[in-house]
Amino acid sequence: MAVLAAAVVVVVVVGVVVVAPAPVAGELARVEHPTKEDGSLTVLAVGDWGRKGQYNQTLVATQMGVIGEKLGADFILSTGDNFYNDGLTGDNDTASFQESFTHPPPRR
């Protein structure tokens, strides 16, 4: 029984170490955004928005930009599910970050 209890403890400890998030080494940039006169905030939320221009994603991105402009979106919130197959190559993955978030559309 003691061997089984020890094995369970080892499995739990290893599980916690493997699943625990790694510490973040940087800070998020502070963004100043002017307040609207009526105090409102418009957010365009998107999820599972595709990858690397496949599956007509250029058309989807264009429409996201059109809707963002029409709504006067202050921010775009991504719900995730964006990095497919092999995931990211690192925290400076230009294909997944710069190309996705700095070239219009969908950024307004």
UniProtKB/TrEMBL annotation:
InterPro entries under this entry? Metallo-depent_PP-like (IPR029052), Metallophosphoesterase_PAP (IPR051558)
Q: Where is this region: Disordered?
A: 88-108
Q: In which domain of life is the source organism classified?
A: Eukaryota
Annotated signal sequence range: 1-21
A single GO molecular function, which one?
hydrolase activity
Biased amino acid composition, Polar residues: 91-101
Task: State the UniProt keywords alphabetically.
Answer: Hydrolase, Signal
Name of this protein = Calcineurin-like phosphoesterase domain-containing protein
The organism named in the record is Oryza brachyantha (malo sina)
